[in-house]
């Protein structure tokens, strides 16, 4: 799927042409709306993630032509279709390897990978530690509703113990994974948690994540209002608390201590570390990969590639 910025206007474009919403340096939020309209259930948390992401891109003055948003499969993975960008709605669990390939192919792009807890932590989990330790400069937004939404409410790796789903009719037996804890342990250099109902706070986190030079991980707690029985906004609202002001995000042990409290869901930046990112290290060693592609090179027929994948 491609929703490349230069695509011809369609009826959907016209429908999306909402009243102007100035943001950033002379930009308008509508510049970031894709050709398709979101088809999530009314009230779904993912709307808040999309809103926060588009506002972040606008505030950071990121041109849609320099932006790639890639995903796997799931309700949350539909997100690239609704953003004006080079979008790729790929294979289940493969958001990260795709994002890595895009970034290596053109390191100048801002690359965002997005997907659900099932996509990233079930079938796709093998990619997570390697993306984190590699420290390529990309942002991974894990949209966590604690179940499989698209396939109608099965258990995911973040479903809490005792929770009843179609695949755990007597309640989940295993303890859940803690994605923030994993990201820190795997070596991510920026790790944060946000909440889809707090769009402004989430926007600030996503902006920090994009600004960070290296692998940034943002877990977004995002209720599924259709299949997440008992774990909607009413459940999460009182549990989400702001990060203590005195938390030192450079202190890995303190970050791990805070994230181990699973009764309270702290939102904010848990951990950040300055570590040279992958492409810079590769280029410093004279590596062949990570060089910017020269579009005028006759051996690289970019036009036919764009036509083929449009
Ligand atoms: C290889 C493969 N296996 C299984 C599926 C079926 N499938 C589609 S989405 C999904 C899980 C969706 O859950 P999640 O990633 O958490 O996203 P959500 O829909 O909750 O946003 C599964 C198992 C698939 N599409 N491809
Ligand atoms: S099924 Fe759940 S996650 Fe999917 S769009 Fe509906 S509310 Fe959102």
Question: What does this protein structure show overall?
Answer:
By secondary structure, the protein is of the alpha/beta class. The protein has one domain: Thiamin diphosphate (ThDP)-binding fold, Pyr/PP domains (Rossmann fold, 3-Layer(aba) Sandwich), CATH 3.40.50. 30% of the residues lie in helices and 17% in strands. The protein has eleven helices and twelve strands. The chain has helices spanning 11-16, 46-59, 95-105, 117-123, 128-134, 179-186, 199-211, 233-236, 252-259, 278-284, 302-309, and strands spanning 22-23, 27-28, 67-71, 86-89, 110-116, 139-144, 147-148, 154-155, 190-195, 216-221, 240-242, 265-272. Strands 4-3-5-6-10-9-12-11 form an eight-stranded mixed beta sheet, sandwiched between helices. Strands 1-2 form a two-stranded antiparallel sheet. A two-stranded antiparallel sheet has the order 7-8. Helix 2 (46-59) packs across helix 7 (199-211) and helix 6 (179-186) packs antiparallel against helix 9 (252-259). The longest helix has 14 residues, at 46-59. Thiamine diphosphate (TPP) binds at residues 73-76, 92, 115-119, 123, 143, 145, 148-151, 156.
